[in-house]
Amino acid sequence: MERKDSSKLNIAIIHPDLGIGGAERLIVDAAVELSSKGHNIHIFTSQHDKTRCFEETVSGTFPVTVYGSFLPRHIFYRLHAVCAYLRCIFVALRVLFLYRSFDIVIADQVSVVIPLMKMKKLTKVMFYCHFPDVLLAQRTTFLRRIYRTPIDFLEEITTGMADLILVNNKFTASTFAKNFTAFKFTRGSTSRAVSKDQRGSV
């Protein structure tokens, strides 16, 4: 991807499943806003059903590329987290090897792609955390606790590799700080996809 001028950025967004939901709405709004400012936006995902998606993702405002749709979303209705990780890793690997460096990569929801994107030269990686997955997953049985242990570890370690971490409110920021203690970060939040203050400079 070539820059139009020095003030415009090449931005990649990696999202696990570009369907219809609150997380998807935020990502699409961010992509639309950034694109309207002249930045080059490219969304990468493992799932994009053109019959069940937001209109902006098929209008041609920005490209949406799908990799790994053939990979399972679950195994016998289990191992959803592992499958999500594998699908996102596949997407990240395709971006890593098939595309030139982006100025910014925005990783949404799944942090395991961050170390792969950090391998791109001169690329800054931003992670958007809706809420720590470690607090959402159930651990009602011994087997589930064993299953979640490496996933929770990977989430914390890879999240800390991001150059910038965004959350959507102060409560999430506080919860994030209490549960992810392996690294230090400066607190901040965004109440919308792109804030009014950011719009003048991004």
Automatic annotation (TrEMBL):
Pfam families: Glyco_transf_4 (PF13439)
Subcellular location per the Swiss-Prot or TrEMBL entry: Endoplasmic reticulum membrane
Pathway(s) served: Protein modification; protein glycosylation
GO MF annotation, one: GDP-Man:Man(1)GlcNAc(2)-PP-Dol alpha-1,3-mannosyltransferase activity
The Glycosyltransferase subfamily 4-like N-terminal domain, residue ranges: 20-179
Superkingdom: Eukaryota
Keywords from the UniProt entry: Endoplasmic reticulum, Glycosyltransferase, Membrane, Transferase, Transmembrane, Transmembrane helix
Mitochondrion as UniProt keyword: no
Annotated InterPro entries: ALG2 (IPR027054), Glyco_trans_4-like_N (IPR028098)
Assigned GO CC terms: endoplasmic reticulum membrane
Keyword Cell membrane in record: no
Name by which UniProt lists this protein: Alpha-1 3/1 6-mannosyltransferase alg2
Organism: Phtheirospermum japonicum
